Hints:
The complex is a heterodimer of chains A (about 500) and B (about 525). Chain A has about 500 residues and is an all-alpha fold. In chain A, about 75% of the residues lie in helices and about 0% in strands. Chain A has one domain.
Amino acid sequence: MLLDLDSGWGLLRAALPETVLSAWAMLLLLDAAWHHKEPGAQRRAGMLALVGIALAAAATIWLWVSGAQVAGIPTSLALDPFRFAVDLIVLLSAALAVLFSVDYLEREAIRIPEYHVLVLFAAVGMMLLAGGEDLFVIFLGLELMSVSVYVLSGIDRRSPVGGEAALKYFLIGAFASAFFLYGIALLYGATGSTRLPMIAAQIGPLGLQGHPMLLAGLALLLIGFGFKVAAVPFHMWTPDVYDGAPTPVTGFMATAVKAAAFAALVRVLLGGFGSIHVVWEQVIWWLAAVTMIVGNLVALAQRSVKRMLAYSSIAHAGYLLTALVAGSMAGAAAFLFYLLFYTLMTVGAFAILALKGRGGERDVLIDDLAGLAETHPWLALGMTVCMLSLLGFPGTAGFIGKWYILVSATGGGYTVLAAILVLTSVVSAGYYLPVVMAMYMKPSTHEQAHAGVLVPRLTGITLAVMVVALVVFGLWPNRVLDAARDGSHAFLPASVTTIAAPVPVAN
Amino acid sequence: MTEFLANLHYARWALSALLVIPLGGALLIWPAPAGTAKKIAFWVAILEFVMSLGLWWAYDPSGPAMQVGGWLPWIPAWGIAYRVGIDGISLFLVLLTTFLMPLAVLGSWSGITRREKGYYALLLVLTTGMLGVFVAMDLFLFYVFWEVMLIPMYFIIGVWGGKGRLYASIKFFIYTFVGSLLMLVAILVLYFSAGRAAGGVYSFAYDHILQYATLPMPTQFWLFGAFFLAFAIKVPMVPFHTWLPDAHVEAPTAGSVILAGILLKMGTYGFLRFALPLFPSVAMNRTVSAIVITLAVVGIIYGALVAMVQPDFKKLIAYSSVSHLGFVVLGIWALTLQSVQGALMVMINHGISTGALFFLVGMIYERRHSRLVADFGGIARVMPAYAAVLTLVSLSSIGLPGTNGFVGEFLVLLGAFRTHPLAAGIAATGVIFAACYLLWALQRVIYYKLDKPENRGLTDLTRREWGVLVPLVVVILWLGLAPGPVLRRMEPSARHFIEAVQGRAAPAVASARLP
């Protein structure tokens, strides 16, 4: 199906998922205002939000299945499987956030139906990030997403740490946006366009490969992205913000926000600057290496589960960057595959943590999980699968994901980076396993240690489905692999010329 | 028998069935009432053993080729498939595993009282993992099994272990994990190299990679290092052995038996199957081979010396494993027919004898809740049958002629003497040390005076314990008196291994020749 983005109808159809979701979110806002005083308003809004997400997902799948493509010159919005794949991951993460939040907000007595509306708006922003082929669309998506998430992280007004998290996130986010915008300005100055295909087309003929303004613009853009994906050394805000926000929001931030920002980064690097892979390869290499090392080592020192997961999500940003270094299609496919299962295992871990804790879960130490297997065997099993998957252990989808990243890295000749990845994974065993160890091998501190841990039905079913998915796709990943490969076809080697040359294996 | 099995198409499904049955058993335990868990596990393990016996006849010892196969596509996008098969090397490791598992279940009968269902389910899952390592003919599949068997062992040590179990279990996990992950990267580099050399046919099949992978020498060196590290940690070779005493001492009896009897063999199996055939010119490089042989000899002597001063009987046996496995590594690297066959024999013997020793220690531990040699003395008076079995097993572990231990170590020394006389000479003293530490411990435990009042009430072997020990004793004597059929089945594969390694590393090994 060819869509002409210059015509109104074409554009509407191309942006159907985003349109549907924003329209639905606005209606939901009205509905929430109408029913605000009712006791079940929050749950009702959550259920309606799920319907909206389902509609948007259906629209995305329709576009993907019908093979939508841009007719003529590419413009501001991409129509390729990469966008659709990321959209679906974002929608999945949003749906999970809503599903877990409904019970969570009820328990914590946060009666704000607008919460779910904000999740939807954030999701729209993320989808724009994933689909934007114009730096301004990407920026628009970035801001829409960020503003919604700032509010979400401070949604519990009674919690001072929540407020601190929101303010910190906002300030740092504004700072990052400034870098980003300045980068766009410089790139426009160098190439005369903000559209990625145009930028890509200009670099060669104008001989801009080493042009200072282009490089400075790209560097500023990378810094902006670095903040959003929480890559070291731009990660300083992460632990405090993740720690202070309500746990389902943290899960959402650690997955969807990161996924969307990463997707935009992939598109900018592969779509816009694929021809100067040599230039940014080293930068990403170092970012990936430092992020993996610092994230994993610092996570090792954490005693609070929530902070540990926050640092672990930094480490995972490093793994995702590793997929990017090669600048290859295999890398993009590995990225998509990993992103999907990273979302499942991270949200799962945060959701189980949320069941255990009260009032923000900041005080749940790893040792507080001691003996959980005795009283809640299924919950402990679920947590174990999530931990093993995060660790990248065979039999879980996390392993296939990590394996795919290793395939793309070694296939591109980055053996040293692959070695760093596996060695830092060993380090990560040092903080994922203690969780398992506490649950199964340590006796609980007192009789009633886990008496307050109740698993609401909705949360329980969702968790069970996620955990089963992690194991099933860890053993039979073929379907998802095919989808991920299809998704990576947006970056055909024609636009990524440098990776064709095999790099000799480094010692 | 051979004909009967052929009529059943035994060779087609045997290995896959061996892999699936324990998993099925584990699933069966799940809904069963807690009291029946051990019975289910026992009968599943017995079924497994009976099924595996067919391999003895189904295996055709006339050639070195992989046999009794199995193939299913798994992840075609990466050339990954479920490929299994056995040769004369893995045949006996498979049989050893299926032989020890029912005994391990039986040996846990009274020792495991908490969370029985989980324990026996994990034992069965562990069986699948270990068998998988020995039969996998696809590097990806091999890696998956190699890692998967870590988790059940980790839980068995960590949940049902002794006082220091948390430390021991995580140490065990992380040590193995470090080595194996680097091996994973090495496997990937091999995969890409073989794929390019094969004109774009990418596959993780063992034969494919063995045939096509060609890499420059420095790269080969690093890859060999990665494989070597993974296997050396598992063996364990000095200086990577420090996880072993901790894990052994803390693990429950059956855990120790499996750890010593089967898990350690995975390291030496890895050398035989992967590290040497894939990188023969690195492995047989003069310097590399000198370093490995030195480490092996150091392991033999060091393990024996440290074992001698252990006050804890279980730790003593743990260190004796370091010593015995040193013989295996020496035998493999000496690369003569006798030494390689000897190494294989030591692998089996060590599984039987050391397994039996761990069972025996476990039995007195259950009675006295102590493993310290000094807490016993003269118990031959109250436990005469126990004393007799312990003596026999100790003698087999020392390598007394007429027991299985003699055949293996003698062959290793004989073979190694041709190519590395100095190393063989020093290693031979390890046998003497073995006699020292074991006989001395034996003396202090079962002879001397019965001077501790709490030992007076000890009861002799129960029927169940006889059930565990008799099969082991029978095998000890059988392998000691008539090792011929076993050696005959090993020979073609051992010969093929030597030829393959020497043939591909021809320039690097001028000194080592086939007899």
